Amino acid sequence: MAALRPGAKALRWSLCRAVSGGAGRLAPDRGADAAPSRVSRFCPPRQSSCDWIGPPDKHSNLRPVHFYIPENETPLEQKLRELRQETQEWNQRFWANQNLTFNKEKEEFIHSRLQAKGLGLQTKPGQKATVSAEEMADFYKEFLRKNFQKHMCYNRDWYKRNFAITFFMGKVAVERMWRKLRQNRKMSV
Fold it and tell me: Which Pfam families does this one have (predicted)?
């Protein structure tokens, strides 16, 4: 990890505070209605005042984000946070299901190819039988072909969600700027 410049920590802290909007709390885990792939036990400190990124999920391979909730969160900031949470959960579900499907089909493919060659799953005791890279390339190509439409729909929805999040981030930034300008005017009067 690269060393930080002397003022970098203060800059990062102020950016974190600016994005989060001040003091508050972290969004609670959703418990029973959470996506099934969210099994991480990661929990940031209670006094934290910014979003935290946890370790990769074992099913989706994505890092879950624990969203910080400021005490004075405006309705627009709340809508942005909820949209980000919903998008993260949607993304976690998609990739957990996609990875499960991929691994299942890959194991079936390997098993069928080994059976076609008259081999079992193990060639020698403690040694696992494998298929060639060319055969695996055939599997990958076929898997991508079969799931092309699913991936296209995912990409389209992903872009829509990201544009919506970016739009709300702009609205929140403008709202915070106006709030700060109003506070400065009150202080100068």
Answer: COA8
Burial class for 174, CB neighbours closer than 10 Å (0-12, 13-18, 19+): exposed
Predicted TM-score (pTM) of the model is 0.69
H or E element at residue 3: none
Q: Where are the alpha helices (DSSP H) in the chain?
A: 8-20, 75-116, 133-146, 148-188
Distance from C-alpha of 69 to C-alpha of 67, rounded to nearest angstrom: 6
Contacts of 139 (CB under 8 A, 6+ apart): 105, 106, 109
First to last CA, the chain: 48
- Closest to 44 (Cα-Cα) out of 19, 27, 22: 27
Sorted by where each begins, the domain ranges of the chain are 22-188
| Torsion sign over Cα 169, 170, 172, 173 | positive
How far is it, in rounded angstroms, from Cα 135 to Cα 164?
Answer: 42
Q: How far apart are CA 163 and CA 35, in angstroms?
A: 23
The per-residue pLDDT for range 87-120, each reduced to its tens digit, is 999 999 999 999 999 999 999 999 898 888 877 6
